[in-house]
């Protein structure tokens, strides 16, 4: 257990931050799954729309440094290639 007031506060902040970041990571994963499902269904219009929304989510989460910018770029690149391949 934390001994000082500062350490107790940091522990509380850490718990709150972890909860918030976990929900954002979950939102990211859900968004990516929706896009992959649209791609798997073969509907190019739905996949393109889902990809656009997912790109926005990925960028927002990378800006907050919840995921690394290179990981964000990798996700966007692979999803874009998959949507493009639907032609």
From TrEMBL:
Protein name: Small ribosomal subunit protein bS20
A Gene Ontology BP annotation from the UniProt entry: translation
Family, as annotated: Belongs to the bacterial ribosomal protein bS20 family.
Region (Disordered): 1-27
Free-text function comment from the UniProt entry: Binds directly to 16S ribosomal RNA.
Pfam families according to UniProt: Ribosomal_S20p
UniProt cross-references to SUPFAM superfamilies, sorted A to Z: Ribosomal protein S20
Ranges annotated as biased composition (Basic residues): 7-22
UniProt-recorded Gene Ontology molecular function terms: small ribosomal subunit rRNA binding; structural constituent of ribosome
Superkingdom: Bacteria
Alphabetical UniProt keywords: Ribonucleoprotein, Ribosomal protein, RNA-binding, rRNA-binding
GO cellular component: cytosol; small ribosomal subunit
